Amino acid sequence: GKSLKNKPWTIAALNRIGFTWKVKDHVWDDHYAHLLQFKAKHGHVNVPYNPPYEPDPKLVTWLNAQRSKYWKLQRGEESHLTPERLRLLNEAGVDWTPTKNLWMSRLEELKRYKEKHGHCHVREQKNDPDFPLAQWVRRQRVMYDKHVAGGKTALTPERIKLLEENGLYLDVKEDKWRSRYRLLLEFKEEHNNVFLAEGDNPRPMLKAWAQDQRKEFSKKKEGKPSTL
């Protein structure tokens, strides 16, 4: 079409109905609106990776991109984060420290996992969508054990308190026992029995655990110290 140069009324008409001249601006505004919605629902803006935020699955990726632009700004590098957008993100309460944000995101994941499964023993299986969470939980336990033993770790008193409040540090052995017991229940549902025969058991560690339970039961019957 012809240039709008000599037709200012056309520009004014489009502005009046909220026409977006830069599509990228519109995308940014949409993500920011979803960020505020997330905050209204959860009380913070630590958007998790898993599960993705359904109204805007790309919100966490967008938020991390804003953090990258922020740190470029701090280093004096070229950044597309405008002063106005920085102000809006600060008003929303964005935490500019990625590691801290990731830690809180994992904690939120752990809370949801516990609500769903009733425990914090996340199984480490590479093909499981909870695998990143399982690795994170294992690292927290390693650091916690070191802390209990008097060693120095990256766990702050605040984080230790949060993890304990969410039941991560109930007796780990008991947590593992419950995990094996749940596997046994799954086996029973599938096979209508709990007879873990040689050769047809797809879970060899479960068979070993069942044998351990029998040994511990025998000890208990004989009046010997037992874990049961």
Automatic annotation (TrEMBL):
InterPro entries: Helicase_assoc. Residues 25-93, 102-166 form the Helicase-associated domain. It comes from the Eukaryota. Transmembrane segments: none annotated. Gene3D superfamilies: 6.10.140.530. This is Helicase-associated domain-containing protein.
